[in-house]
Amino acid sequence: MTDERTLPLLLTPGPLTTSRRTREALLRDWGSRDKAFIALNTRVRERLVELAGGVGTHTAIPLQGSGTFSVEAAVQTFVPRDGKLLVAVNGAYGQRMLKICERAGIAVMSLEWSEDQVVEPARIASALDADSQLTHVAVVHCETTSGILNPVAQVAEVVAAAGRGLLVDSMSAFGALPVDARSVRFDALMASSNKCLEGVPGMGFVIARSEALAKTQDNARSLSLDLFAQHQGFERNGQWRFTPPTHVLAAFDAALEQHRDEGGVEGRGARYRENCELLVSSMRQLGFETLLPDELQAPIIVTFHTPGDPRFDFGRFYDLLIEQGFAIYPGKLTAADSFRMGCIGQIFRADIERAVGAVASALETLGVTDCAKRKDG
Ligand SMILES: *Cc1c(COP(=O)(O)O)cnc(C)c1O
Hints:
By secondary structure, the protein is α/β, with parallel strands linked by helices. It has helices at about 20-25, 35-50, 65-80, 90-105, 120-130, 150-160, 210-215, 225-235, 245-260, 265-285, 315-325, 350-365, and strands at about 10, 60-65, 85-90, 105-110, 135-140, 140-145, 150, 165-170, 190, 205-210, 300-305, 325, 330, 340. The strands form 4 sheets. A 7-stranded mixed beta sheet has the order 2-10-9-8-5-3-4, sandwiched between helices. A 3-stranded antiparallel beta sheet has the order 11-14-13, covered by helices on one side. α2 (about 35-50) packs across α9. The longest helix is centred in the C-terminal third of the chain and has 22 residues, at about 265-285. It is globular and about 60 Å long. The structure holds pyridoxal-5'-phosphate. Pyridoxal-5'-phosphate binds near residues 66 and 171.
């Protein structure tokens, strides 16, 4: 499979390694009003709704830009001007939603957990009880900061019971970890073309509950991030309001076909889980310690503690891995020194085996013999 891909392989949270078939879909130009492009666009939107279990109740709204654009659009569109958002924070992407609210002048409060702890539905329920101003709750599905899996279904239950709206940042989970709109009630779920669905970067999308979306006209403080208006454009004539990322959509369409061929969410999730288990067990054999216990780990990206051995230098370690064809990712934790390795994208068992081999060789070059974390942290 290696010859189908370009090096380095990206063991990161995105951009990710894509297939040749996905990249080949970029080779054609499309007119945005071309019937074939409109059909492609409709097909992509319908498939996204199917993947979320939202046929008949939900609608997919693609949006230009990276994933954050879609998160910002959802926050602005769904939280009314006199509304207030509760953000459950256990990492950088929860923090980012707070910042989005502050910029837009949206009333917001946060509940915080440490980066190695899941958010707790019961605390969210009490906060909703205590503050009648709160209209919406936002939660991150897989917090890519650490790789932790938050209990989205249980959060959805307490939010629905309290009669509030839920926004789910499922950016690094959607397509590999199940979310079923028939059992998990949300107003908006945000994701992008380039994470578990393995398209190229350049667009995000929001799966919106149609009933909730219908009440959002004029909420957005931004013209281009207004999902109500973006959706109206699609419904009116199947077209994007502003220049569509045509090539990105064509690649995404091809990526969705391959996702279907792999067995959809279940098949994609199974490959990532196998990658993750192999990565964690092999790295532990080398002596590395994971931040998270296995039961909190999502099969998306793994945080490893930086070895305490003074000969370990992350910059040199990174370069030695790039030379061998693997890109890894620095840590994003505030509390501990760490680095991350992703399990998503066009990455297979044999790639993980080779990547861990490259890690072993880099350690040897550096003269690192003990990969246990530093004793003080
Ligand atoms: C990747 C990601 C985003 C979006 O990040 P961009 O860099 O804007 O694409 C948002 N939330 C989570 C949890 C993510 O993993």
